[in-house]
Specification:
InterPro entries: DUF2516. By secondary structure, this protein is mostly helical. It is built from four helices and no strands.
Length: 105
């Protein structure tokens, strides 16, 4: 096996692993946005539930499509992936902790 072919295979594995992790993060963010009530978002002084559902939903769809693209053809758009992962990351790092405290059980 040539070194260039080995590098190509390693790149494919790393890109697929990153796509799978980002996909899981996007779907998890969407589920967490769905679980909280409207009241929890309002009392935490965050944007509305509809807004975060739209942001995390679009992010999850983009990241699932990214995973399918990587699995199918081996490459995807890094720009769209980073935007979607950043949106999910902002929700998970900033909004989720504030809303989780006020979530009704």
């Amino acid at each position: 096996m040539s070194p260039l072919l080995l590098i190509y295979y390693v790149q494919l594995v790393v890109e697929f692993a990153m796509a799978a992790i980002f996909c899981g993060m996007g779907v998890y963010a969407f589920i967490e946005a769905l679980r909280a009530t409207d009241y929890a978002y309002e009392s935490a002084f965050k944007r509305t539930k509809k807004f975060w559902m739209a942001v995390t939903g679009a992010s999850a769809v983009a990241l699932v499509l990214n995973l399918l693209m990587v699995a199918r053809i081996g490459h995807s758009s890094l720009f769209i992936t980073l935007i979607a992962a950043t949106a999910a990351g902002v929700f998970l790092a900033d909004v989720r902790p504030a809303v989780a405290v006020r979530r009704r059980r």
